[in-house]
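Batch job 17 of 40 flagged for manual review because the log was empty.
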Amino acid sequence: MDVKIYPSKLIGTVSAPSSKSYSHRMIIAAALADGVSEISNVTDSNDITVTSQAMEALGANVLADSGTYTVRGIKTPAEKAEIDCGESGSTLRFIIPVAAALGTTATLNGHAKLPQRPITPYTREFPSKGVTFEPQSGLPITLTGKLRAGEYNLEGDVSSQFITGLMLALPMCEEDSVIKLTSPLQSKPYADMTIAALKKFGIDIREMSLSSLPIYLIKGGQKYKPCRTAVEGDYSQAAFFFTANALGSEVKVTNLDPNSVQGDKAILDIISSCGDDMKPFTADVADIPDLVPILAVLGSFTKGTSKIVNAARLKLKESDRLTCVANALNAIGGKVTAGDDFLTMEHIDTFTGGEVDSCKDHRIVMAAAIAATASDSPVIIHGAEDVKKSYPRFFDDFKSLGGQFEIL
């Protein structure tokens, strides 16, 4: 789907979609509980659908109805399961250890760039803990065996998703486990979110420190308990509208928890640091990689050179996000330079319009749409349907705020 967006300011109130990160975690936890859980305020998206289907393949029952997910937990784990993870890295990296802890022989597949995204920490650590893989990399991949407790040593600079996957799985093992980081943990707020989410389902994970690196102590033999809970709003999605405000729009965003542990809440501090005179910023995105596309838009309007640093992992997202973000904004008049682990944005007075390739990346679509609100001429986004990955109603919300566009 190609969308042509006409320059216009956004005005009004929008409810932030629910946190996709929390939704993944809560649906999995509910599926592992003995009983029925109810999770409300869930925004449906492609990624959440594939996680729900994955848990059903493992033996749970998941019913989605108008944003409320009723989940009947697994009584008898499936002996075998075929699981399609779509394009969701979270689904792939969360489900592998969960299926292994249940003892299910599972074959996982995926699409777009997902088969190229690494799962090396699992294929390295799991064979000594009772689980084997065939093949050792790429998708489809089949895991066989039952995960055992023990000491897991993981590098922290690849993805916190591996930490979360183990946090979801290891409480079900009989003995105690420990997760030790061999390098500083990037995206640590996502591990904090996992601990907070699992606490709602009766799972206790203790964080300590060893040589300034976090370690996580996980008691074995824990039981997931069903609960009734709601998913808070997503700061990574709200960031698009907060940035629109910095560029002249007037949007009030609701459905957000001001006390949230979401790392992407940092968007508020970054915008605040720019002030009314739009001073340039340097943003370390090691903990907030999802903000990069919209931060590149914001940085384009600061008075000077703004920088995004510690962003090497963005090359392994839905797209090579550094290169694709730079190409997208430069195609509509930006002055963005991409490096191996950084972006720099030089000041522009306005975007000039043009055509943007989404690179199959939902966040580039939304960033380009916000950029169009501060453009002299229309912006055409190719592949705009990719917003369905995380925020299917984005263009509906955009229109409700006065955004003007047509589907080509």
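Reviewer: the log was empty due to a logging misconfiguration, but the result itself is present. The chain has a mean pLDDT of 96. Unflagging and moving on to job 18.
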